[in-house]
C-alpha cells in the first residue's frame, strides 16, 4: 500500500470490559479495579488490561482466559506465537518459579491466555492459582486485524 494521511484518520481509542474466566468452568470473579483500554490505528490494535485484587465468587476450573477483546484476532495469524504480549502477575499460587511469563492471543478468537515457562515447557496458567482477594494481573497485547 501507499503511505497516506488516511491511515491516521483511522484512529480509535476506548475502553472495553475484560472478563476473567476459567476455560472449563467459567466461575465468577470480582475486582476492586478491572478495566480494559484499547487504541486502534489502521489495522494495529493495542489493548491494556488491569485487574486488581481478584476475588473468587464461584470457582472456575481449567486455565485462565481473558475474553471480550475489543477486536477479534484474525485466523491467519502466523503460528502459535503470533500474538504475544507482556504480562505481570502479582500474588499467584505456584508461580514463584515461573519464568518468561507472557499473554498470548488465540487466533480466530477474542480470547487471551496467560503462559509461563515451568522449566520444561510453556504452559498456561491454571485459574486455581489465583489467591482470592490478593492476585493482580496486568498486560499489554498488540496485534493486527
Instruction: List the total number of helices.
Output: 1
Gross morphology: globular
Order of helices and strands: HEEEEEEEEEEE
Major sheet details = 11 strands, antiparallel
Q: What structural category do the secondary elements indicate?
A: mainly beta
Low-pLDDT sequence parts? none
* Overall average residue pLDDT: 87
Number of strands: 11
Proportion of β residues? over 45%
- The radius of gyration computed from the alpha-carbon positions, rounded to a whole number of angstroms, is 16 Å
Q: Kindly, what is the distance between the CA atoms of the first and last residues, rounded to a whole number of angstroms?
A: 16 Å
Helical content stands at under 10%
Q: What can you tell me about this protein's structure?
A:
By secondary structure, the chain is an all-beta fold. It has one helix and eleven strands; from the N terminus they run αβββββββββββ. Strands 1, 2, 3, 4, 5, 6, 7, 8, 9, 10 and 11 form an eleven-stranded antiparallel sheet that branches. The mean pLDDT is 87.
Short account of what is shown:
The protein is mainly β and 145 residues long. It is built from one helix and eleven strands.
Keywords:
1 helix, eleven-stranded antiparallel beta sheet, mainly beta, 145 residues, 52% strand
Amino acid at each position: 500500500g501507499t503511505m497516506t494521511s488516511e491511515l491516521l484518520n483511522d484512529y480509535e481509542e476506548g475502553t472495553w470490559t475484560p472478563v476473567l474466566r476459567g476455560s472449563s468452568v467459567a466461575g465468577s470473579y470480582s475486582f476492586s479495579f478491572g478495566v480494559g483500554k484499547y487504541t486502534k490505528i489502521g489495522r494495529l490494535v493495542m489493548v491494556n488490561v488491569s485487574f486488581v485484587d481478584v476475588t473468587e465468587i464461584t470457582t472456575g476450573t481449567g486455565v485462565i482466559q481473558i475474553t471480550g477483546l475489543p477486536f477479534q484476532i484474525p485466523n491467519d495469524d502466523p503460528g502459535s506465537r503470533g500474538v504475544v504480549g507482556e504480562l505481570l502477575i502479582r500474588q499467584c499460587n505456584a508461580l514463584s518459579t515461573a519464568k518468561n511469563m507472557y499473554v498470548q492471543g488465540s487466533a480466530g478468537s477474542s480470547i487471551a491466555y496467560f503462559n509461563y515457562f515451568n522449566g520444561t515447557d510453556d504452559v498456561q496458567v491454571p485459574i486455581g492459582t489465583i489467591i482470592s482477594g490478593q492476585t493482580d494481573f496486568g498486560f499489554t497485547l498488540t496485534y493486527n486485524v
